[in-house]
Recover the amino acids of this structure.
């Protein structure tokens, strides 16, 4: 983050966009209010938008390693530990951004009803953790070299982009369906309970996926070194 100004700048964009949207939302003659968007829907929608932006780099975790990726195969550390560290950093960054944006929303327009607030937090946790196993697999299977301080041509591989896009759409549909389920059934706590179950499943899947990353890294060793070292 310190060496890559463009990536650091991407952390400033989400709070800026939240501030812009809340300015549009607040006031008697709000543009968003005229189109029927309530605070109950605005909060989950903006959290989903932020996750869409912030989790994308996880699908190419080794983008800036360069020749340093060779060290991973010689160091007394497993790829399970390496990816666990990368995931921990990403999760900390994402939820730090979400917390900051939540404060901005609370200050500008207030928070939704408590059941919807809890359900939205649960949806965010599920959406992030649920993507990590696939993102780790994509990072090892379809790496793409990127250069620090360079903006032009700095995109993930096509497979990673479409894979991430498809996974986020699927998770978005699941989250939206469960959030609306509470409204359809008249049970405000149903989404929160449902997301608690999904989080447990996602944590189990993530834990299970970590057991196989060492074998996958060894299998993709030549691809990683050839792609990132050239």
């Amino acid at each position: 983050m310190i060496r890559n100004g463009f990536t650091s700048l991407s952390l400033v964009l989400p709070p800026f966009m939240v501030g812009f949207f809340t300015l549009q939302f607040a006031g008697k003659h709000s543009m968003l209010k005229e189109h029927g968007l309530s605070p109950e829907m605005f909060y989950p929608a903006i959290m989903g938008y932020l996750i869409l932006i912030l989790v994308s780099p996880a699908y190419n975790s080794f983008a800036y390693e360069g020749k340093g990726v060779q060290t991973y195969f010689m160091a007394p550390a497993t790829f399970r530990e390496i990816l666990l560290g990368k995931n921990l950093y990403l999760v900390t960054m994402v939820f730090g951004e979400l917390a900051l944006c939540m404060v901005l929303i609370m200050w500008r327009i207030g928070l939704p009803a408590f059941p919807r607030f809890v359900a939205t937090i649960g949806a965010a946790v599920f959406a992030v953790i649920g993507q990590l196993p696939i993102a780790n697999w994509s990072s090892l299977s379809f790496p793409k070299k990127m250069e620090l301080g360079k903006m032009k041509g700095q995109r993930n591989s096509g497979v990673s982009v479409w894979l991430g896009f498809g996974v986020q759409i699927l998770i978005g549909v699941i989250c939206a369906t469960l959030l609306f389920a509470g409204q359809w059934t008249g049970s405000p706590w149903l989404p929160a309970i449902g997301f608690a179950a999904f989080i447990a499943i996602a944590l189990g899947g993530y834990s299970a996926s970590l057991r196989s990353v060492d074998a996958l890294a060894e299998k993709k060793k030549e691809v990683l070194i050839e792609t990132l070292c050239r």
